[in-house]
Structure formats: structure tokens, C-alpha cells
Design brief:
Blueprint lengths: L6 E5 L4 H12 L3 E6 L14 E3 L5 H11 L4 E3 L6 H6 L1 H21 L4 E7 L22 H20 L2 E7 L1 E3 L17 H10 L5 E4 L11 E2 L1 E3 H17 L3 E7 L5 E2 H12 L5 E4 L8 E2 L4 H7 L8 H15 L1
Parallel strand pairs: 1-2, 1-4, 2-3, 4-5, 5-6, 6-11, 7-10, 8-13, 9-14
Antiparallel strand pairs: 9-12
Helix pairs in contact: 1-7, 2-4, 4-5, 6-10, 8-10
């Protein structure tokens, strides 16, 4: 057994949101133990605790790491998260996202670890019937990525009902921004998120941004999304972990968003204001299955966790993302 203070196993902790959560965990008095196979994560982003390289499907390796550190709980980020890739290879997503989680939960059960926080997504709602989206709305994913996350939520519900798992799913809206101290930030390969693509177009490291659709049923015709700063997401995970320590068991789910939508045109205008430079962009046709608007109702996260977004003003999101890009690109 390794002597660490309040160890927490963080699967996928070398990724974007995972690495920011590790920083928040350390600041809150925990020791984040990152378990990551590094196929899409970055070893350099593991700065706040030990790194154990391993695959979720390797149950014996998982159990060895759990026995070594005896974590008080698990925060589970490890997953593939590209919608287009999931459409091209759905079996990859079901094997990795669902099968990997089953392997993890089996290892946790064998080693008697009950507290579990899951990185879920608003993609489980599919095309919503209305906005803002609350947790009781129908979950009807429109791609295998969203479906894989919903399937994991069902696995969690069953385990919570039958095995004593104390589980919480956090359904993110659009994660954005970077560590205010510029120690870590967004670094996907390939990059698919709107904000780094827009800022990268300014710097010339990416091609001009393509805005998909100008005739959506929104005030300016472009898609509306709810952008949440990655540091706010990180704080929610710390609160969720604490909540699983006081709950009597069961499964809970909360949305993580601001409750405020921003259109792509508004985002481009603010990016130009923050950087003082134009965003090169073109317009293309709307993408099939792309909802006109996705905005969270975050009331349950406030009521259950005492959480609300504090750093998710669009200017702050873009300023921190730009500082990270200036440092690294």
C-alpha cells in the first residue's frame, strides 16, 4: 500500500477535463492517481499526482493499482469522445466506453470501492424537445457516442440498485477554456472543439473556421450552445466526489452548464474582441442531426451539490483559451 492522503483514482486523468480536475482535487486536499493508457491523453498534463499507465480492459492491472493506492473513490473520464468517429466505428465506442466501464466497475466491486463519479454528456439527450434541458427530459441519443454514455448510466443505475454503488453522472454541456494559471489546457489530436478551432484559425495553425448553417431556428441563424469553463467542470467533480461520500447510495445525475446560450456568431465576435484579430471563417450547410440549440438547466447541480458556474463568462473562457494557445501554439 502506498501512503497518500485521500487518494482518488482518476481514469483518463491525462485528458483535457481530467487533468484540470486533478488540479482541483489536489487543491482540495486529495491525491489524484491518474490511470490512463495515454492513447489520447498527454503524460505532460499529469502534474498533480502519480501516473499509472494502464488500459481499462486490463482488469488485473486495475485491481493492482486499486490495491496499491486504496482510493476512497473513482472519477471516471476515460472514454472516446468524437461523434464522427463513433458514427464510422460504433463498435470501437461500445467496446471502449461501455466495456471499459464495466471492467472498471468490476475491479471496484472486487476491491470494495463504492464511490463513483462519471463523466457523462448532454449528448445523451439527443435533439431536445425544448430548452433549457433538465434532467427529467427524455434521453434519446442520435449517435453511438451519446448512446455509449447513456448505456454506462444504465449500468451505473443497475449497480447502484443492486450492489451498493454510490454513483453520480455529470452531464456536461460544452467544455471550454483553459487553466487560468496556464499550466494545462486543451490539446486534442485531432481538434474538433469550436473555440480552439476558432482561435487556431486566428493564429494560422488551423484552416479557416467553418460555420455550419446560418438558417437554424435561432435569433441569428447559427447554432446556440452552453459553454462552461473547464475549471468550473473540475470543481463540480470535486463536489460530486464529496457528495458520494455522504449519500446513502443510489444513482444521481446532474447537468453541468451555465443556463445561458451563446451563438456561433456571438462567439466569433467575442473571440475577435478578446484577441484583437479577425477570425477567418466560411459558411457551410447545416449538419444533419445538429440541434439548433443546447442549453442546460443547471438548477439540480445547484440544489444537490451547491455548485454553480463561476468562471464561465464567455470573455473569460476565450481569454484563458487564448492564453493557453499563445503559450503552446
Amino acid at each position: 500500500m502506498t501512503d497518500f492522503i485521500n487518494p482518488v483514482l482518476v481514469t483518463g486523468g491525462a485528458g483535457y477535463i481530467g487533468s484540470h480536475t486533478c488540479k482541483a482535487l489536489k487543491a482540495a486536499g486529495y491525491t489524484p492517481v491518474v490511470y490512463d493508457n495515454l492513447c489520447r491523453g498527454n503524460a505532460w498534463s499529469v502534474q498533480n499526482g502519480p501516473l499509472e499507465v494502464g488500459d481499462l480492459m486490463d482488469g488485473e492491472r486495475l485491481r493492482d493499482v486499486i490495491r496499491q493506492y486504496r482510493p476512497l473513490g473513482v472519477i471516471h473520464f476515460a472514454a472516446f469522445a468524437y461523434v464522427g468517429e463513433s458514427m464510422a466505428d460504433p463498435l470501437l465506442y461500445y467496446r471502449n466506453n461501455v466495456g471499459g466501464t464495466v471492467s472498471l466497475l468490476r475491479a471496484m466491486q472486487a476491491e470494495e470501492v463504492e464511490r463513483f463519479v462519471f463523466s457523462s454528456t448532454c449528448a445523451t439527450y439527443g435533439t431536445p424537445e425544448s430548452n433549457p434541458i433538465h434532467e427529467e427530459m427524455p434521453q434519446s441519443p442520435i449517435n453511438p457516442y451519446g448512446q455509449s454514455k447513456l448505456m454506462v448510466e444504465q449500468v451505473m443505475k443497475d449497480c447502484a440498485a443492486l450492489t451498493g454503488l454510490r454513483a453520480m453522472a455529470l452531464r456536461y454541456f460544452n467544455a471550454a477554456g483553459a487553466d487560468p494559471e496556464v499550466a494545462i489546457g486543451e490539446a486534442h489530436d485531432p481538434e474538433t472543439h469550436l473555440i480552439p478551432l476558432a482561435l487556431g484559425a486566428i493564429k494560422g495553425i488551423y484552416k479557416p473556421l467553418t460555420v455550419f448553417g446560418t438558417d437554424h431556428d435561432t435569433p441569428d441563424g447559427t447554432c446556440i450552445r452552453d459553454y462552461i469553463h473547464v475549471a468550473d467542470l473540475a470543481s463540480a467533480h470535486v463536489m460530486a466526489l464529496a457528495h458520494t461520500g455522504t449519500s446513502n447510495g443510489g444513482f444521481e445525475a446532474v447537468n453541468l452548464g451555465t443556463g445561458t446560450g451563446v451563438s456561433i456568431k456571438e462567439l466569433i465576435e467575442m473571440a475577435e474582441e478578446v484577441t484583437g484579430r479577425p477570425v477567418p471563417h466560411t459558411y457551410g450547410p447545416a449538419r444533419a442531426g445538429d440541434p439548433a440549440a443546447l442549453v442546460a438547466d443547471p438548477a439540480r447541480a445547484r440544489d444537490v451539490l451547491g455548485w454553480q458556474a463561476e468562471q464561465s463568462d464567455l470573455r473569460n473562457i476565450l481569454s484563458t483559451a487564448w492564453a493557453w494557445m499563445e503559450k503552446t501554439a
